[in-house]
Amino acid sequence: MKALVYGGPGERSWTEVPDPVIVDPGDAIIQVDTVTICGTDLHILGGDVPAVQPGRVLGHEAVGTVVDVGSGVSGLRQGDRVLASCVSACGTCRYCRGGGYGQCLNGGGWILGHLVDGVQAQYARLPFADLSTYKLSPQTSDEAAVMLADILPTSYEVGVLNGRVRPGDTVVIVGAGPIGLAAILTARLFSPSRIIAIDKAESRLEAAKQFGADITLTPDGDPLEVVRSVTDGLGADVVMEAVGVPATFELCTTLVRPGGHVANLGVHGKPVTLHLEDLWIKNVTITTGLVDTYSTPDLLTMLNAGQLDVSRMITHRFAFDDFMRAYDVFSDPMSTGALKVVLTRG
């Protein structure tokens, strides 16, 4: 089969690799029907995730059809159409029993496209398949479902819920890429008084308006003055970092009000300065996190009920054989206007 293979920092190829096989009784093999590229994949290619070794098949967001299951799989059968979660869960360790699947102690967590081969391929092996897949109803399209593999639960859990967004809050989201846009979409479920989106790219700021941002501005547009002007000088109740670079995290800590929350969503590959000389007195809560995907069933329910419209996330569509071009487009959003790119078997 063919797959998108990591060759080391800056190196990737769409090339022939061996077909996946059942390794553990809890495994399932899927035919990958729809897949997407994540900003985390770009961080891997940038060398920010050194645990990923050359030769690894990338990708952790897919919808597929089950073609084989291990002897220990009880909830799936050949022909089932499933969403493959970006997080794998053993279901029995201390963290999994508490819903903290991202910290699984028995070989789960974020492993797809990280510690084991991922789903940017024609076929993929899914460990802990019973607990790491979600059967899809006929009314749920592949394109909509794949948005719930990672970006929607990540933004909802690590951003909105960890940040404790409440009705009437002023919410600032720094970074209006796919994760930031998903944060806007899910933050609106809690009726904040206003959402402010900050990004360098005008195309992404325009997208932020379509997803529900009330105010959009660039980092050069004096974000601190804007936030203070609409909060009687207090600052934002919740600020989310959705980029993953030191400057944006430090910006977030300047925009939050005393007693507010900074929720970090970005994948960071470099140290960040934490200005405790300014923050120690402000009662600020800072949260970090890897998504656990405990919210995926609820998000699927809201999606099927029409409460979440993720269709506008997708700006570009490709066939599997155009994987290299899809990466080029996704990695250059300033010129391409790309948000999420989707690739299909065709």
UniProtKB/TrEMBL annotation:
InterPro entries: ADH-like_C, ADH-like_N, ADH_Zn_CS, ER, GroES-like_sf, NAD(P)-bd_dom_sf. Keywords: Metal-binding, Oxidoreductase, Zinc. Coiled coil: none annotated. Its cofactor is Zn(2+). Residues 7-343 form the Enoyl reductase (ER) domain. CDD domains: FDH_like_ADH2. Belongs to the zinc-containing alcohol dehydrogenase family. This is Zinc-dependent alcohol dehydrogenase family protein. It comes from Planomonospora corallina. The lineage of its organism: Bacteria, Bacillati, Actinomycetota, Actinomycetes, Streptosporangiales.
